[in-house]
Amino acid sequence: MSQSKNVGIIGLGKYLPEKILTNQDFEKLVDTSDAWITERTGIKERRMARPDEATSDMALAAAREALAAAKLTAQDIDLIVVATVTGDTAFPSTACRLQGALGCRPIPAFDVSAACSGYIYALTIAQNFIKAGTVRYALVVAAEKLTSVADYTDRNTCVLFGDGAGAAVLAAVDSGGILSSYLGTDGTQSELINMPAGGSRRPASHETVDQRLHYLKMNGAEVFRVAVKTMADAAMEAMNTLGVHSAEEVDLVIPHQANIRIINAVAKRMGVSLTEGKVFLNIEKYGNMSAASTAVALTEAVQQGRVKKGDRVVMVAFGSGLTWGALVIELS
Ligand code: ACO
Description:
This protein has 332 residues and is α/β, with parallel strands linked by helices. The chain contains 11 helices and 13 strands.
């Protein structure tokens, strides 16, 4: 879908908890090694929120930085969309908690559940509110406390995930902004990454807790296979709408940071290699932060000067659902 009215990002922020979990830390928890994790995933470290630190606390810190970057206050915001699958509680939403903590006016605030693709979904939703003319300034936050659903007895999954938050303020801009957006789902594959219990299908009980069903379960090998093709196809769809047929023609690719081998394969399909410096990587430091991965990556890319006003960025993500999404953004 190409967009006619220009909506861009006017402020970015991020928050990463202080505590670092290294691969060596995992060697003491499960049967694994720094060498295996580094070679098979590209991850060296990930962040872990404090026990008393919830997703909305991380969202608040990232949101404040984004508001400051946009030179706005919480009172200016007309809409909050939070992308998360690890909200503080099943209800109320993390967006409502964030609205209260920021001290916003009684504006609409809601969560989007699209796992790792959540930031791209949330940016697209906010963009369309602004295009419709009902919202002037929208705050989009992607925040996850995946360490709260990671099973630290399962070496297949626990080494992959970390905590963090990224935020963006969106508004109408004179030119550029979000140029195209492509979103998709395949609910027939919902079992590939899921948390089996704690919802209405299997409410929490002693039995579900004993069976460790409140932790994230993943068929990693199958997810890997689908992720490579789907992410590359989604990115190409978002670019093709603009007459762009290779990532060579954009300034930076920001992929979801799930596995360096997935990123490598996706980049190749998009026509670039990791050695060219056209693909943003922070997986080594943070692991997979689900929706927060692309949000933190975009913020870091701008804060580190990897991209500047007028540059074109392709963001692409894939996750539980299955969900996927891609955006082409010309930075405002
Ligand atoms: N340390 C040592 N060995 C391990 C570890 C570990 N941490 N984890 C798995 N292994 C072992 C397995 O037990 C298996 O051993 P076996 O052959 O004796 O049974 C062997 O390594 C190979 O296992 P695979 O699963 O085939 O390993 P693979 O190379 O596929 O890597 C991984 C696993 C990293 C999970 C990969 O499949 C992956 O990244 N998948 C995609 C994950 C992803 O993209 N998720 C995105 C969405 S997440 C979300 O939505 C919240």
